Prior knowledge:
By secondary structure, this protein is α/β, with parallel strands linked by helices.
Amino acid sequence: MSAGRLAIIAGGGDLPRRVAEQARKTGRNPFVVGLKGFAEASLLEEYSGPELSVGELGRLIQLMKKEGCEEMVFAGWLKRPDFGSLRLDLKGVQSLPKILAAAKKGDDALLRAVMDVFAEAGFRIIGADDVLNDLLVGPGPLGRIAPLPDHWLDIRRAAEVAKISGSLEIGQGAVSCAGLILAVEAQEGTDRMLSRVADLQIEIRGTPDARRGVLVKRPKPQQERRIDLPTIGVATVRGAGKAGLAGIAVESGAALVVDRVEVASAADELGLFIYGFTPAEVA
């Protein structure tokens, strides 16, 4: 088995492509496997990758071993599957009782149970940030704009709610404006949450001409950090801009940014900040 090849299990969004491009540049010869219903068809075409159902665990293991992969990374967004209609192979059927039991404890327990299946098969699971070294958000502002003193009420309030929400396996994000929680992220994801904020009356939120409020994203306290770290991209910035928010704050060293230069440029153009906070700053 070749030690250098990396398997990339691709969900939705642009992150899988970024990971694959970097793996190719560094000689990792990526083997991209798309999860049906999530991965972009163009990505699989470019990397000649197969498309599998989430429940085809045995086939995935066989393919990765055949292709000489020792390491694997999960990249991109996924939604919890409907276990009743999930297409399963033999390994999926054998693993299902353990996975179902874990699913009752929350998404992070579910992810750890799935990862255990691959670890037991001999694969080393790494995070997307292990491939893309500059993916993690550092401390301080990402673009030219920094939060003002008045913004810290909302940063701390939304950070507190996001931590509580995460501990209850609800989501990783919250929006606060003048100390009032406008939205909490659940299964719909960040983009749809921001759309809900944009639909609220302008009396309780900001506008593009008078920005107020902050989106905070941070990992759940029990987060499995090799999978599903909070991620922001240009779409997040645009959604926050449309919702009239003053900025986005994410936990430094615990959130990913896709297309860092483009994200910072979009934020500067819209007039909102992106800030990496430390846990001490929101305590």
